[in-house]
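Re-run requested by the PI after the first attempt was lost when the workstation crashed. Everything re-entered from the original request form. Ligand of interest: zinc ion.
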Amino acid sequence: MSQPPASVGRTVHYVSHGTPVRSDGSQAFPPTCRAAIVTEVDQDDPGRVGLVVLNPTGQFFHPLAAGGSAHADADEMLGGSWHWPERV
Ligand SMILES: [Zn+2]
């Protein structure tokens, strides 16, 4: 991983899964970047973290004990992954 590893307390993006893909390939709600704070880092796999996701209408806890979240590049927009916030 060329980017710095995550550490507890850092703010990252979590990619929401979005709604199911329709038969025409579209989605009512596509995967979206959500603000998230790192709560844990897997000691054996530093790219995998536990997160609390700050959705506009509520929080979602995603601990390592439930599988955590793996890093993926921002341009992949892979549901369930995290990445460092894009520079805009
Ligand atoms: Zn993002």
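Saved to the shared folder this time. Residues 13, 33, 74, 83, 85-86 surround zinc ion (CB under 6 Å).
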